[in-house]
Amino acid sequence: MKQDTIHIDNLSIGYQSKNDTKLVASHIQARIYSGELTCLLGANGVGKSTLLRTLSAFQPKIEGVISVLGRDVDSYSDKELSTTVGVVLTEKCDIRNMSVHELVGMGRSPYTGFWGRLSKEDKRIVEESIALVKIENLTSRMVHTLSDGERQKVMIAKALAQETPVIFLDEPTAFLDFPSKVEIMQLLHHLTRSTNKTIFLSTHDLELALQIADKIWLMDKANGITTGTPEDLALSGHLSGFFARKGIVFDTETGLFRIDNQYSTEIRLNGHGQKYAMVRKALQRNGIRADRRVESSAWIETTGETSTFIVHLPDGQVRNAGTIEELLQIISTHL
To answer: Predicted confidence band at 245 (pLDDT cuts at 50, 70, 90)?
Structure first.
């Protein structure tokens, strides 16, 4: 069963000094649940890192309530908090002369006391955390020899070894190439299911978040924070409104964002699946709006078992194209 792990009520965040208060966001009402991957999206400078630091108790709130597992976060001692909330930060850790196994073992520090000696149970938890992230082949490697993607997996394993029900991550894919970004996001999603932990992260990887996250938090200066599943936010218009800026359009047909091309003409495009999607993408890149709803004297068929595309021209001619490149040549010549 999913648990209401974090309960946020009328939260205001920002920075306080003796003479001034800089408010970043206010009146935040939200819930974060166990067994879900929640992604925080927003423009640079909107306050994502401030919110993340406040939720993880690294920074004091201005006002309001943050309840973690039914307790106000301010009531936790440092030791209690270290066994309740785990944090993985953006900064690369420049660690020398330490193996992966040793670093993951440091996740047990809230339980091992001053000397840091791992008991048999601590060692079991470290091995289990390594197995969950599938980095058994890295355990003897020195941390400074790892790639960025490998290092991020190690830091996630360290957070798992801490055995906290809640894990916050600040831009976990910031320094990674695209395949590594996908791998890390898929790993985090899998961990929410296999461990039932609450995993909350800030990210700039919009497309990945929309495909992988269970819940999205949209944060902007005008509307504060809007939360929901990616699909509900799309249907309500919040996603298209959130990114309503020049050059970016939310495509309701694919559920993803695309470049807003300037269209010089339009054509009806029949079909479905990958062939339909790839032809539509190529046409729109070339200034032709194409989908099933367009009424036009010419149209394109992408259905059928063959790999060809059928172009019905305005004069009644029918042309076959074996590739999208050929299709574009036919369209440019006759439309």
So the answer is: low
Query: Which of 140, 155, 135, 143 shows the shortest CA–CA distance to 95?
Result: 143
Residue 245: exposed, middle, or buried by beta-carbon count in 10 A (0-12, 13-18, 19+)? exposed
Alpha-carbon distance of 76 to 144, in angstroms, equals 34
Lay out the sheet containing 21-33: strands in order across.
Answer: 21-33, 4-16, 63-68, 71-72
- Confirm if 313 and 267 have CB atoms less than 8 A apart: no
Cα separation, 301 vs 275, whole angstroms:
10
The domains of the chain are located at: 4-246, 265-334
User: For all residues of the chain together, what is the average pLDDT?
Assistant: 91
Count the residues in the chain. Answer: 335
Strand intervals (E) in 104-206: 166-170, 198-202
CATH architecture of 4-246: 3-Layer(aba) Sandwich (3.40)
60-91 per-position pLDDT tens digit: 999 999 999 999 999 999 999 999 999 998 77
What confidence score (pLDDT) does residue 35 get? 95
Q: Compute the distance between CA of residue 213 and CA of residue 34 in angstroms, rounded to an integer.
A: 13
